[in-house]
Amino acid sequence: MESFRIIGTSPPRFDTPDKARGRAKYAGDYTAPGLLHVALVHAPIPHGILKTVKVPPLPDDCYAFTAKDFAVNLLPSVMNDQPALAEEHIRFLGEPVAIIAAPSAELARGIASSVQVDCTPLPVVDDMRAALLADAPKLFDAGNLCSELHSEKGDVAAGFAASGLVLEDSFELPVQNPAFLEPEACFTRIDDKGRLAIISSTQNAFADRSACAQVLGIPEDQITSKAATVGGGFGGKDGNTSQVFPALVTWKTGRPAKYVFTREENMMCGMKRHSAHIEVKVGFDLGGKLLAYEGRMWMDTGAYAVLGPAVLGLGTEHMTGPYLVPHVKLDTFLSYTNHTPASAMRGFGAPQTAFAIESLMHRAAAALGLSDLEIRRRNILHRGERISMGAPLECDVAFEEALDQFSKSELVREMYERPEAGCGYGLACAMMSCGMGKHVPDTVHVRLERKLGGGYLVRVGLVDIGQGGQTTLGMIAAEALGAELHEIEVRLADSEETSDSGSTAASRMTYICGKAIIEAAEKLKAGQDAAEATVAFPEIAGEDGMHKVFSFIAQCVKLKIDEATGAVKLLRVHNTTEAGRIIHPQMMAGQIFGGIVMSEGYALTEQIRYRGGVPLEKDFSSYVLPTALDAPSMTNDNYDFSEATGPYGAKGVAEAATVALAPAVTAAVEQLCPGLAIKSLPIDREEVLKYAAGGEA
Amino acid sequence: MGAKLYRPRTLDEAQSLFKECCGVYMAGGTVLLVDRRHGAIPDADLISLEAIPELTGIRETTTGLSIGALVTMDALEASETVRRRAYPLWQAAREVGGPQVRNRATLGGNLCSATPSADAAPPLLAMDASLTVAVPGGEERRIPLRSFFTSFKKCALRPGEIVTRIELPAPPDSDGRFYKVGRRSALAISCLTLAVVRSGNTWSVAVGAAAPTPVWCPETSAALSSENADRIDRACAALQREIAPIDDRWGTASYRRTVAERLLRRALRELEA
Q1: Is residue A82 within 8 Å of residue A140, measured between CB atoms?
Q2: B179 contacts on A by Cβ (under 8 Å)
């Protein structure tokens, strides 16, 4: 076995001292003389034709801008469907329609709230399935179908005919808000060379530059862009959130400008996890082997596509879970509705589809007299086997070994050997891809330099969004260069200092940048003073464009139900991951624990519901996130393994922890509630109360 | 914007300011400032009551406790006296909001907000607390808490009056329980609260978030205090008549009814054990 000096240890994070001392500078912390604060005027209705925007007489030194002030009123995106500011057609409640800039945030918001927006209401599209009916009101001339996928592998009819057990059900998944601590924020100014300088809370500083170049109609070399310290992203900062608004103000006035979302704006306008309706039929033989899977899914992308088509694609690709199913038919649809745009969120479609397959695996186990663990063991995917949409699994896979390790964990043994009376236990498994996947450029370009006076500089265009990417990459560089960690400086996400390497997303940063750093380090060790390397994800070479690298996860949950209230209390969660080699075990555990708590919210309390296009959850008193007191006691272990293509054997793992928890929770709740079959999230405690052992009724 | 904050040091000064500036009294501000931010109340001047000494302190009296209206939830939680002599109030105090909110929120403010879900109300209703009120001009009057809540978010205070202290009887043999049902373990808005207090064979029950105001339940209490063999079933039936819950985002009316009864039965098991 390879031995490492630094890989596999848990040194202090590079960013910790500044964060602990309050020195880290978030986008909202930047200021400059003559600063203008930006506020948005938001659409007052979810669907309508915008007639007029009446701005009251402006006080001195205050400014107002509307759609016509942008050179090109269109944000760059997959579908090119979203204006920077609504111009004619309003498609969701809160859609930005005008920009106000003023010397104070209070004044800017005060003016924004007095702007009169007149519109003619249109009928609201409130349901992702009804949206696709012929008589539905249309958000776009081409209709409300944003994208669709159809895939067939084998012969599902034959698969079901051979099945001894066929289960069928439908599942509803809610809208979830990424709910990062730091809301969307951006600061802009004109630099000493007359260029527009953007400093933002972002997952992709280079995309910010190209978005601003497009809407302002200026060349990219007139713009610099860098990421500030970022207080969480989870997918919700992958794309334009706030950047183009202060950018316009600065470009038009020559003044520094800043825009920080309020939490209410984050709830109303920030990008969300897609809600989904999933209808699944699965067939098993009597030994518990999966024979056939037929699934239909609708996802609600809201008013604009953003990354929705890619989310639909990844969700579809993960629909059958980490299992080998010979016969698969998938038909999936992405609908436009008058809801807040949904885009990337940690798991990127996989948590939705995992809920359906894992719920049915649990029911099949009960019907066939198998344990939840055993039925999964019998269906495990191995290297070379074809996943849901037919692409072969080409990375190194040790999910079977990881499941063995999982089965020996304290919690899983407790579940099977000595369960505590009154407690419910459940488990679920999942796989999660690393890398962008189908037809998305997935290349990074890194540069390593020897510093004058000793030490090394690593330049990477991706962002430390709080996940610890800076430290991980520093460790890989130190290992590769034979250097000590303190000799390494990692400079990230700055158009002046680093190269465009796409988005910090898709669990890709460690894997792909790590590979590039190792390659560049070899050149440096050969004697160069500086070296660069460009590396692409393996799927770029594959013809099908499907993901090639996957991590695997298994989670076990122990919980209690309050028989007086139906409240579910998570007591323990154990997680086992197969993510290749672990670079920094403590940060790995942090990723896993954070993902578990995020998914606890998804399972138990978080949702945004819409009535007539109006969200019922508008702030953090109604959108219920778990608190520290709600978090379970958590443990994590990793199957010690190495992915041949990965940097020192690593795969990506940022998202995996969000995929399996909800179905493990529902399985545990169902164990305590005979007769209850949970089909939607978050779990309805009033339903639970009807089934929970009625000892107190 | 433009509102002033006053910080009077005496009740007289506070009440004169109230008359002169048409401001509103503020205790911890955890309800008031949020309502202001949402535009639910006008941007009037604020008269902070924090610096008035009469409104502070937890004292043991011959019959129970006297608690200053400006005593914070945090101070109640930290008080061994409150824990020993008014256990359900102590339980309620430690379930209010989170640490930051408890550090600001006061007992008097919680009661004067008069929200149906005010966490401190059910234990104090069950314990038959009364409020000492400073009337402008220097007089004092007493208001039994059981007649304090008049309608949704309305209480019996007249303009300019200030609740100075909360007096609660705490017989040495009394014991009690408080339960809060919220969507999470902290920072939760109550879906239902219930307090049960027992002193010998005398029982008293009060419920929050199940009617337009927090409610004391005299019939339920009487049924429990009786010697009937079916006293518990009678109490549960009475409880359903004495609460009037509605459907809202935190729960349906029928859920609240079920939970209220189950929590009452839980309290009896715990207090009779």
Answers
A1: no
A2: 564
What CA–CA distance (Å, rounded) separates A152 from A388? Answer: 9
Residues of chain A with pLDDT under 50: 695-697
Average pLDDT over residues B192-217: 98
Cα dihedral A302, A306, A308, A311 in deg (nearest 10) = -140
Confidence of residue B37 (pLDDT cuts 50, 70, 90): confident
| Threshold 0.95, pTM exceeds | yes
Based on DSSP, count helices (H) and strands (E) in chain B, helices before strands: 11, 14
Tokens of residue A141, six digits: 């001339």
More reliable by pLDDT, A70 or B39: A70
With CB atoms and an 8 Å threshold, state whether B259 touches A621. Answer: no
At A606, list the tokens.
């978080």
Q: What is the pLDDT of residue A1?
A: 57
B258:A689 CB<8 A: yes
β pairing state of A443-450 and A530-536? antiparallel
ipTM: 0.95
How distant is the Cα of B265 from the closest Cα of chain A, in angstroms? 7
Mutate to test the interface with B, among A560, A622, A624 (most CBs of B within 10 A): A624
Edge-first strand order for the sheet with A456-460 is A488-492, A456-460, A443-450, A530-536
Residues of chain A with a CB closer than 8 angstroms to some CB in chain B: 106, 110, 563-567, 605, 616, 621-622, 624-630, 686, 689, 696-697
Between β-strands A275-284 and A290-302, what pairing exists: parallel, antiparallel or unpaired? antiparallel
Between CA B78 and CA B73 the distance in angstroms is 9
Q: What is the pLDDT of residue A559?
A: 98
**Domains of chain A listed by start with CATH number:** 31-122 (3.90.1170.50), 275-437+544-691 (3.30.365.10)
Give the contacts of A197 (CB within 8 A, at least 6 positions apart): A188, A189, A190, A191, A223, A224, A225
Q: Closest Cα partner for A234 from A176, A309, A303, A312? A: A176
Alpha-carbon distance of A360 to A276, in angstroms, equals: 17
The tokens describing B246, both together, are 């509605």
User: What is the C-alpha to C-alpha distance for residues A604 and B79, in angstroms, rounded to an integer?
Assistant: 34
Which structural domains are found in chain B, ordered by start? Answer: 174-272 (3.30.390.50)
pLDDT at site B273? 81
- Residues in A touching B252 (Cβ below 8 Å): 686
Q: Give which of B139, B93, B112, B114 is closest to B27, Cα–Cα.
A: B112
Q: For position A697, what pLDDT does the model report? A: 40
> How many A×B Cβ pairs under 8 Å?
49
Helix, strand, coil content of chain B in percent (nearest 5): 40, 25, 35
Residue A12 to residue A17: CA distance in whole angstroms: 9
